[in-house]
Amino acid sequence: MTAFFATIRTSFRRQLTYRAANLSGLATNLMFAFFRASVLIALFNEKNIVNGLSIQGAITFAGITQALIGFLSFFSWYDVMHSINDGQIGADLLKPMNFFTYWLGVDLGRALGSFIIRSLPLFLIFMLFYKITLPDSFLQWLVFLLSIVLSELISFGWRFLVNLAAFWSPNALGIGRFAFGLSWIFSGFFMPLDLFPDWLANFSRLTPFGASVYLPIELFINSLTPGELLQTVFIQIFWVLFFILIDQLVLSRGVRKLVIQGG
Amino acid sequence: MRSVKLLLRLIRLQIRSQLQYPASFILEVISGVIIMGFYFVAFALTFSRFDNIGGWSLGEVAFVWGLAEFSFGTMDMIFSGFDYDAFGPMIRKGQFDQLLLRPVNITLQVFGSRFVLRRLGKMIEGLAIFIYSLTLIQVEWTAFKLLYLPVLVVSQVFFFGSLFVIGATTTFWTMERLEILNIFSYGGNEVMSYPMHIFPRPIRMLFTYVVPAILLSYYPAVYMLGKTDPLGAPAFVSFLAPVVAAAMFWLALRFWHFGIRNYQSSGS
Fold first, then answer.
1. CA 20 to 30 Å from A251, out of A111, B99, B142, B206?
2. Is A263 part of any domain?
């Protein structure tokens, strides 16, 4: 357990050292938040509510998605793949720590660093420019915070799984691009799912991608009943457990056929 | 002439190596089309709940969207060597020094150093969106418009290409790619996909006076589609695209050569 926390701490510090990169990424995400918000405002035009989504909710959506993009790192992450390809994994497997847990620690540290240095400032600056909606009860704030932690766990579980493809294919990068693209489609990242046709929105919400990206956003912009809050958290916990299980299973199979070239 | 032959040869080599696994290559292109195309699909699905954006129909948006995607994809393939995501590591690892030692024009070598063929995906996607737009709207084509269209595409390619060249040049000093430049390159691609008058004034000013994306997408489209322009610019700005693109590319190359003259190796 101490080793796990030490991993988180180290990774957290590493994330904070890239100050210029973080700042530059923050500025970029912020600009894209402005672009997306402008598009949604132009679409809503004079309307206040469309299919249950308010214009404020839609603007908030533009801010949160850009704030969380670095934190969730959902769409591009090949670290484990690289370590399998270049043989670093040999040393990592020798560590007195489960390989999955080790990378989870690394990723949690990265996410925490990114949250503090990118997500929070971005959203605070965004709030200066637009009138947004905030969760309207203390309970909802609390559930939201829990929910984004679960989001990061789902995101990690999925990314780790995709990376394991490197055990089987020398061209896993292509598989990775495809898989991450797939998650992009169903995540509700581009446009608020509420504005999609209902069947697609409902389907997306059930996928791990919608569960990771869109469910916490919904928690943030809608006022939900305690029952709905509970349901959201349950769906998310389901996906977390699902990926922990699958990842361990696939990992143990992959390790068994791993051959590290001398070098 | 000799160097052009060499460039083509370098590119041919790149293409051959990327076609080593044809099945996997085709899969990557197809997945590129679907995934990047989905952003447009998401927009179109959302659009069905509204009836216009800034007075433009879905077909009219698709017109500028498809053009920008196609041009960016083409540029991303031709200018792969200047993609600052890849050029930064090239500088850091000292691979750029190797190129400098060869007795061939350095700019041509960078063009030939990387050629990402799977960008075909984005080109196909852009083309599909553009063709889709033509099924939705009736453009009143004239001979001049038909002539201007390819000029516009080439202008956009050079416009985006200039941003890549400038981005690559900055890594001579920073060693790292500067993500902030994405605001103009990928961000430019994004804002050019919409009728740009919908953006608030500060964003419009940025994309008019700092990086004049609006002259390569919105104004030419206003002319082609016969839209009225709420910004009230004089009519001739619709035709500045090739001039602006040429000027930007010239400036970018000047900056690039200035960077090379002042280049100090990372020493690794």
1. A111
2. no
Q: Is A53 helix (H, G, I), strand (E, B) or coil?
A: strand
* Six-digit token string for A258: 């791993």
User: Considering only CA atoms, which of B239, B184, B230, B187 is closest in space to residue B209?
Assistant: B184
Domain count, chain A: 1
| Confidence label for B268 from pLDDT (cuts 50, 70 and 90) | low
pLDDT: is B94 or A163 the higher one?
A163
Cβ-defined contact of B45 to A171 (cutoff 8 Å): no
Cα B61 from Cα B130, distance rounded (Å) = 9
Q: Do the domain assignments include residue B268?
A: no
As a whole number, mean pLDDT of residues B67-90 equals 94
Test the A interface: residue of B43, B179, B184, B203 with most A CBs within 10 Å: B179
The whole-angstrom distance between A182's CA and the closest CA on chain B is: 7
d(CA A68, CA A63): 9
Instruction: Please say whether the beta carbons of A173 and B28 come within 8 A.
Output: no
| CB A208 within 8 Å of CB A239 | yes
Is residue B48 one of the residues assigned to a domain? yes
> Which residue from B minimizes the CA distance to A173?
B28
Mean pLDDT score across all residues of chain A: 92
Q: Across the interface, which of A43, A190, A192 has its CB nearest the CB of B39?
A: A190
Query: Is A261 contained in some domain?
Result: no
Domain, as residue range, for A159: 2-256
The whole-angstrom separation of Cα B9 and Cα B4 is 9
CA distance A82 to chain B (A): 15
- Classified as helix, coil or strand, A54 is strand
Find the DSSP H helices in chain B.
2-18, 22-47, 58-78, 84-92, 95-101, 106-113, 120-136, 143-174, 185-192, 201-205, 218-225, 241-261
Residue B17 burial by Cβ neighbours in a 10 Å radius (0-12, 13-18, 19+): exposed
Residue B26 or B134, more confident: B134
Torsion of CA B20, B26, B27, B32, to 10 degrees: 120
B56 within 8 A of B62, measured Cβ to Cβ? no
Decide which of A222 and B212 is more confident: B212
